[in-house]
Specification:
The structure holds 2 protein chains of 2 kinds. Chain A contains 14 helices and 10 strands. By secondary structure, chain A is α/β, with parallel strands linked by helices. In chain A, the strands form 3 sheets. Chain A has a 4-stranded mixed sheet, sandwiched between helices. Chain A has a 4-stranded mixed sheet with strand order 7-10-9-8, with helices on both faces. A two-stranded antiparallel ribbon of chain A has the order 4-5. Chain B has 32 helices and 20 strands. In chain B, the strands form 4 sheets. In chain B, strands 13-12-11-14-15-16-17-18 form an 8-stranded mixed sheet, with helices on both faces. The longest helix of chain B is centred in the N-terminal third of the chain and has 22 residues. Classes of the chains: A alpha/beta, B alpha/beta.
Chain lengths: 398, 775
């Protein structure tokens, strides 16, 4: 169950930071597809991980940026003087999503609860028809448009003229860089997880550098038969949990910690969920830079959530277009595309996988680790989410 | 080489009317570049081994198959066939909103004889046959309207790719103009989508959206419209459509793509069944009887369509093409077709705002009264993005009104023309309330309160106290003179009449009434709102009953008289529908409501006196007393029951009719006489409206009669427009002859009295036979 994964992430955090449990004032977790038994998964996981039962916890949801929301919620609470120490994280268990009975069946079952006599019960049961048993599966589709995200990504790629080859090349880059980072031991943010009854998972298991030829053979996954988004150039859904410790600077220093990274500024924006579903980073990046008083050139490390290779490339093209900036963003000129040598150089969601609610923290921690490793000062994290929403966060290394 | 030469020869025959094509013909071997020739309607780009043919009728929103476009198209295709570097072709439009919207009507109307039209049809057939048999695959890339001749071009191609856009519609609307698809459509369509679907398309003329077309096998691939990118969504979408189509064209040429469609089990079964002559005969029979029932044999086109399809399927292509071209020619010169085309032009005329753009666009609309009318007006406004306040005086009435709007929109969700999300976001434009909150932001108020001058005056005064200075006050009334309503206003220049027809979401007409004091800008604003609501708008001068109600009055009075003479309501209905009214005259009274009819008849009777005489109004009054209010009360001339289709005559009426019985006058009560008594009074009154300047032209008079009084032939179900057209008064006067009309009127005048006295305008027309209402 999801809270097991979350518990492991929390325990990992405790071990790594050796923060005393009772210092933690609050816990916030992000998740997307909720397990109905643990709808406040933050609380269940915290209790299971041995946190004090006096530490309140709540769960937030904002599609793929749920753990970003968890982090900024923590930041907000600290800024408001509510707390000093917050644990934020996210969890997603894609391998076991709740599948519901059909509405008709649910209605019958609920009425059955209220039926008093055996006769009433039997008459209700006799009304059940075969179609009642059709289950309802959760879909990765927009509620407002009924369009699946892959389909939207395919249209976005087409709108910006991103070719299949470009997408495959970018996906291959992501896998190769992730493999390299993994081999060099750079992905230190991984906590091994013992799957009950199975082996321990010690590293990301979705990294599969392939060849362009092999990727070229795949059929389009969404827009058939002529689309460009395939299984190989999309991020894959996986299980995962993440956690991070957020403190006010004074508290951290007082407790003798050396901050890994400073969260300086963030913005959330949203756009049209149909045609600009995954185009958020383009809108949000210039905004956060302005807010933080920086330019694109000041950023040493870019960490963007890779939902689809086509989505990343479309965003890069949009950010590099004066026409787009003037006509759709109300800006005088483009913000410019981030240079690729600073961009997702340790792989991304395409190669590491995308457990919805957990991805945000991974992006931020990777950016922090990259800043430290490469000696950079400023990092910028961006992630798009369903509903046309997006969050970017600007952080710096101490 | 051989097939090509044959084709070349065929082409020469077909295009002997235009010099343009022979020029292209001469050039075909030496040039593939369109830039060298002065083509204005069709251009051609060569992209690798694929030729991209672009249609672009200059200075027009849509592409039409005019002589010039066809000639240039033939020309370009000949170049493509001659160019060995080209292996396939894509046909696309430069206009995102229109592939080809149909044939050029002016071209058809300019033809003097059936032979000329037949020749046009045969030219088209030959061209499209060449495309069908082209050794180089041709792909149609469809974005926007693909109708009539445009659809025939598309289905002659080997493959079709269409954008899944709301603007992309496919269809064969020829039948609505009294024609049939004349460029091979009647022959190709049944083979493509199966006989039942083909009949449905050709006999109803309905528009088919792209996703539906894909399911039917009418198009092979769909392309989703794109959002903003490095170009505008429209520009990039059509470019993308072209890219996708080019890939498929290349694939077809390389044989990596097959044009053969995989058919579902149901479709294969249908096809199998349709291959049996016995089953086909049954289908023809069923369809024929259905058409007979709907058209009462008044329209020749639908029956011709059946005949042409039948010939093609039973006797082969050659016979099919021949009869198609001949029938097309014959139909084009019929009076029915001319009437329908006139109606079409009228509709186009009534979709323009002759007052120009209003100074201020109406963004917030307030509707007073949440009854059937008020809620209907709100419904057609919110879904066009107008913020609408729906105000009523009682919570119960308001709830009912809001539910009506919801139900109207939800039925579109059920038909999948709207998503549930769009429905919700449209409904957010609707504010239901009991007070005047927010009226200070209203740009226009339309009142649809009870038809009583005192009530109208009361709300007018209340509203004027809360609305801003620029706000227009429109009154939705079917008979109360607007100047009388405006008399209570502090600002009569802002008062106007907007007469909607029930049910508002189905009836296309809006009759706008201006008084002497109504300002131009107020009129402009009202017309703009009407057009935005999707209405066909006529603008008339103020007067009792305006135009539509007034024309109807004398006719209904005559209906009552006829009933009093002992004619059964069913017979009255049959006689009037046989003439071309989509709804029988007795049923019409039930639909309108007997109480409303009484009210109107009384008002108009007072205003016009003897001319509205004939039937006894006391008959109506007694019906109201007995509660026989028509459909809404479940009883009128007929008994209405939920779920019962064949309604029976209300036996309670016998007693009433008996009471008012008058002896029939023997020499004028044949069926034809009864019909003419109704019609002549109707036409006479319409002419009177024109004479008095209530109507500004006969065109609007015809449109008002057809769209306002012509109830949609089948409420609720699919609406076909087949029932429209013949009861347009001015066109009828022209074709029947003013002289004959006056003679009839004089004859009845002598028997019944002055209600039949012909008006001066009709007399003028009768005295000079060259005078026509429609030239």
């Amino acid at each position: 169950m999801p809270h097991d994964l979350a518990r492991a992430a929390l325990q990992g955090l405790l071990t790594r930071t050796s923060v005393p449990r009772d210092v933690v004032d609050y816990i916030v977790y992000g998740t997307v597809i909720q397990e109905v038994k643990t709808s406040n998964v933050a609380r269940e996981a915290a209790l299971g991980a041995g946190f004090s039962d006096k530490t309140p916890a709540h769960t937030v949801t904002m599609a793929c940026i749920s753990s970003n929301q968890a982090m900024t919620t923590g930041v907000g609470m600290i800024a408001a003087g509510q707390c000093d120490v917050v644990v934020a994280g996210g969890v997603e268990l894609m391998s076991d999503v709740p599948i519901r009975h059909s509405r008709k069946m649910r209605k019958t079952m609920l009425t059955l609860n209220r039926a008093k006599t055996l006769g009433q019960k039997l008459s209700l049961i006799s009304k059940i028809r075969p179609d009642y048993f059709t289950p309802e599966l959760p879909a990765v589709a927009e509620f407002s448009t009924s369009e699946t995200m892959g389909h939207s990504a395919d249209r976005l790629a087409a709108a910006f003229g991103v070719s299949r080859l470009e997408q495959d090349e970018y996906a291959l880059r992501s896998h190769s860089l992730a493999k390299k980072a993994q081999d060099e031991g750079l992905l230190q943010d991984v906590v091994p997880f013992k799957v009950p009854g199975k082996d321990t998972v010690t590293k990301d298991n979705g990294i599969r550098p392939s060849s362009l030829e092999q990727m070229g053979k795949l059929k389009p996954a969404f827009v058939k038969p002529y689309g460009t988004v395939t299984a190989a150039n999309s991020s894959f859904l996986t299980d995962g949990a993440s956690a991070m410790l957020i403190m006010s600077e004074e508290k951290a220093l007082a407790m003798g910690y050396k901050p890994k990274a400073y969260l300086r500024d963030f913005v959330y924006v949203s756009q049209d969920p149909k045609d600009q579903l995954l185009l958020g980073p383009t809108y949000a990046t210039p905004k956060v830079l302005e807010k933080a008083g920086l330019t694109l050139g000041d950023i040493d490390v870019f960490e963007f959530h890779e939902a689809f290779a086509g989505q990343i490339l479309a965003n890069l093209k949009a950010m590099d277009s004066d026409w787009f900036a003037q006509n759709y963003m109300g800006r005088k000129s483009k913000v410019g595309a981030p240079p690729l040598d600073k961009f997702n150089t340790w792989g991304g969601s395409l190669s590491l996988g995308h457990p919805f609610g957990a991805t945000g923290c991974r992006l931020v921690i990777t950016a922090a680790h990259r800043l430290k490793k490469e000696g950079g000062q400023y990092g910028l994290v961006a992630a798009c989410a369903a509903g046309g929403q997006v969050m970017v966060l600007c952080g710096s290394c101490s | 080489m051989c097939p090509w030469q044959e084709r070349g020869a065929g082409r020469e025959n077909s295009c002997n009317t235009c010099d343009f094509s022979s020029l292209g013909y001469a050039c075909r071997n030496i040039s593939t570049s369109s830039a060298l020739q002065n083509r204005t309607h069709v251009s051609c780009d060569i992209k690798g081994d694929v030729a991209v043919v672009r249609f672009n009728t200059p200075n027009s929103k849509v592409n039409t198959l005019s002589k010039q476009l066809s000639a240039e198209f033939t020309d370009v295709m000949n170049e493509i066939w001659a160019n060995e570097a080209v292996r396939s072709a894509v046909l696309i439009s430069s206009k995102p909103g229109s592939f080809i919207a149909g044939a050029d009507l002016n071209m058809l109307e300019a033809c003097k004889t059936a032979q000329e039209v037949t020749q046009l049809s045969q030219d088209g057939q030959k061209m499209l046959e060449k495309i069908e048999n082209s050794p180089k695959p041709v792909v149609a890339a469809i974005s926007g309207s693909c109708l009539g001749g445009g659809l025939e071009v598309a289905i002659a191609c080997h493959y079709r790719v269409a954008t899944k856009d709301r603007k992309t519609v496919l269809g064969t609307p020829e039948v609505l103009l009294g024609l049939l698809p004349g460029a091979g459509g009647t022959q190709r369509l049944p083979k493509m989508v199966g006989l039942p679907a083909a009949f449905d398309m050709m006999l109803t003329g309905r528009n088919i959206r792209a996703d539906r077309a894909k399911k039917m096998g009418l198009v092979d691939q769909l392309v989703e419209p794109l959002g903003p990118g490095l170009k505008t969504p429209e520009a990039r979408t059509i470019e993308y459509l072209e890219e996708v189509a080019i890939n498929f064209a290349r694939g077809l040429a390389n044989k990596t793509v097959s044009a053969k469609r995989s058919r579902g089990l149901m479709q294969r079964l249908t096809d199998y069944a349709m291959a049996l002559p016995f089953v086909r005969q049954q289908v023809y029979k069923t369809v024929e009887s259905k058409v007979q029932k709907q058209t009462k044999g008044l329209y020749p086109a639908p029956l011709k369509i059946i005949e042409v399809v039948k010939t093609g399927l039973d006797q082969g292509n050659d016979a099919g093409y021949l009869i198609e071209a001949q029938s097309f020619g014959q139909l084009a010169v019929t009076k029915e077709s001319k009437a329908l085309m006139g109606l079409y032009h009228g509709q186009v005329h009534c979709k323009k705002n002759k007052f120009g753009n209003p100074q201020k666009e109406v963004k917030t609309l307030a509707v007073l009264g949440a009854g059937l009318m008020g809620a209907g007006i709100a419904q057609v406004s919110v879904d066009k993005g107008i913020k609408t306040i729906l105000k009523d005086t009682a919570q119960k009435g308001l709830d009912r009104g809001q539910q009506q709007v919801y139900k109207g929109l939800n039925s579109k969700v059920k038909k999948k023309s709207l998503t549930s999300f769009e429905r919700d976001s449209i409904l957010s434009n609707l504010m239901g309330q009991l007070d005047y909150k927010g009226f200070e932001k209203a740009d226009m108020v339309i009142e649809a309160v009870f038809e009583d001058i005192n009530v109208k005056h009361k709300v007018l005064k209340e509203v004027e106290a809360v609305i801003p200075a620029h706000c227009v006050f429109a009154s939705n009334t079917s008979a109360l003179p607007i100047s009388q309503i405006a008399a209570a206003s502090k600002r009569p220049e802002k008062v106007i009449g907007m007469h909607y027809f029930s049910p508002v979401d189905k009836m296309q007409l809006l009759e706008i009434i201006t008084t002497d004091k109504t300002s131009q800008d107020t009129a402009a604003s009202a017309v703009a709102v009407g057009l935005k609501q999707g209405k066909v708008v006529i603008v008339v001068k103020d007067g009792p009953g305006f135009y539509t109600t007034r024309c109807l009055g004398p006719m209904l009075s005559e209906v009552v008289r006829v009933l009093q003479e002992g004619i059964d309501p069913k017979k009255v209905d049959a006689i009037s529908t046989a003439f071309g009214f989509p709804v029988g005259a007795a049923t019409l009274i039930d639909e309108v409501g007997v109480d409303v009819a009484t009210h109107v008849a009384e008002d108009l009777g007072k205003a016009f006196g003897q001319r509205f005489g004939g039937g006894s109004i006391d008959l109506f009054k007694l019906m109201v007393q007995k509660g026989f209010l028509g459909r809404k009360a479940g009883k009128g001339f007929y008994v209405y029951q939920e779920g019962v289709k064949n309604r029976s005559v209300n036996s309670g009426m016998d007693e009433i009719l008996q009471k008012f019985r008058v002896p029939p006058l023997s020499h004028s009560c044949s069926d034809e006489d009864i019909q003419m008594r109704l019609v002549t009074r109707f036409v006479n009154e319409a002419a009177m409206c024109l004479q008095e300047g209530i109507l500004s032209n006969p065109l609007e008079g015809d449109i008002g009669a057809v769209f306002g009084l012509g109830f949609p032939p089948c409420l609720g179900g699919e609406c076909s427009e087949l029932g429209l057209g013949l009861q347009s008064p001015f066109r009828f006067a022209d074709s029947y002859g003013a002289r004959q009309l006056v003679d009839k009127l004089r004859k009845y005048e002598a028997v019944y009295g002055s209600q039949f006295t012909p008006c001066q305008l009709l007399l003028d027309h009768a005295n000079s036979p060259s005078k026509k209402f429609h030239q």
